[in-house]
Design brief:
Blueprint: H1 2-14, H2 19-29, E1 38-41, E2 51-57, E3 60-66, H3 68-102, H4 114-117
Antiparallel strand pairs: 1-2, 2-3
Helix pairs in contact: 2-3
């Protein structure tokens, strides 16, 4: 157990979080309620409820009618979900970049491309 703790301490000092990563972590704390799916408002005269939320459940589309207040709240939650996914994707890319730039790897005949490393 002590060896594991020492290893973690070494990693933290060897590769501190870049400023951009810390900024992304702060952005995560400001994300509010989350929901997957899509919300939309039907045009007047269209058949069905005016406000609708759709999402996938076990590969099937589920549609739910909403009140106007539910629509506004859920629209913000869906926007937050998309913002969260973008932030996490940037954090993953930055994490891989730090990994491959700071820790020794195996010898290779040719360098790995950014695409292979998931940096682009």
């Amino acid at each position: 157990m002590q060896a594991l703790l020492r290893f973690n301490a070494k990693v933290k000092t060897a590769a501190p979080f870049p400023a951009r990563y810390c900024q992304l972590k702060r952005q995560l704390t400001r994300v509010g309620f989350l929901s997957q799916g899509s919300v939309f408002r039907r045009a007047p005269g269209q058949q069905g409820s005016r406000y609708v939320w759709t999402r996938k459940v076990k590969a099937k589309t589920v549609t739910v009618a909403l009140s106007e207040q539910q629509f506004r709240w859920l629209r913000q939650a869906v926007d937050n979900q998309r913002r969260l996914e973008k932030i996490v994707a940037r954090m993953q890319t930055l994490s891989r970049q730090v990994l491959f730039e700071t820790l020794p790897g195996v010898p290779r005949r040719k360098t790995l491309s950014k695409r292979v490393l998931g940096l682009i």
